[in-house]
Amino acid sequence: MSLRLVLLVLGVSGICVAAHAASPAFPTRADALPVFVPKGMQVETQLEADLNGDGSEDVAAIIRGEDERYLLVAVREGKGLRRVGLGELDAYPLGDASLKAPKGVLVIEDLTGGTSAVSSRYRYRYEAATDRMRLIGDDVTYYSRTNQHDAIEISTNRLTGTRITKIRKLVKGDYVDQKPKQSKVAIKKFYIENAPVAEMTLGIGG
């Protein structure tokens, strides 16, 4: 099945896409990470790293419930933590997300969907002027886990607006990379709270 046909089918049938809306159940300050976790939810993945460059270890965590899931970031403030980012994620991942922070840049990698899956990598950097976690780049891929259709990869630098799109054609059961295409998108400030959903970037959202 061609990628174009898959996208048309998905466009007609629709895909459930998570809306980026912070829940009021999360406090803005806490003594430790467990205090941020609302009743009935749990920590899926967590990371301690210096995200704002002050020499203290801050906290990032994926917090999930039965039908909801969030990325939360809090920086160290005195003996406690102050929340600087909270955004909703797809509630039904194919596995636990991963978090890392090379050179203070928070990176979240996630896999969602089904046999046709979306792999995503979002990179955030603390912005002192707004006291928020700004999206600086994202890489999203739509592909078939059972090799049933073409794949598409889109990498976007949110600081420069440069976007690289690459189609991977399915040829005799194997993916074959096509020539990448470079384009420009409008430069807009995104944060954890309003980061573009991977399905929308890929053009497969309903």
Low-confidence stretches: 1-22
Helix/strand order: HEHEEEEEEEEEEEEH
Helix content: under 10%
The chain-level mean pLDDT equals 89
* Rg over alpha carbons: 18 Å
Number of strands: 13
Number of helices: 3
What is the SS-derived class? mainly beta
Principal-axes shape call:
globular
Largest sheet: 8 strands, antiparallel
Residues in β-strands, percent: over 45%
User: N-to-C terminal Cα separation, in Å?
Assistant: 19 Å
Summarize the topology:
Elements: H1 3-13, E1 29-30, H2 33-36, E2 42-49, E3 58-64, E4 69-77, E5 80-88, E6 98-100, E7 106-113, E8 116-127, E9 132-144, E10 151-157, E11 162-171, E12 174-177, E13 181-184, H3 198-202
Antiparallel strand pairs: 1-5, 2-3, 3-4, 4-5, 6-7, 7-8, 8-9, 9-10, 10-11, 11-12, 11-13
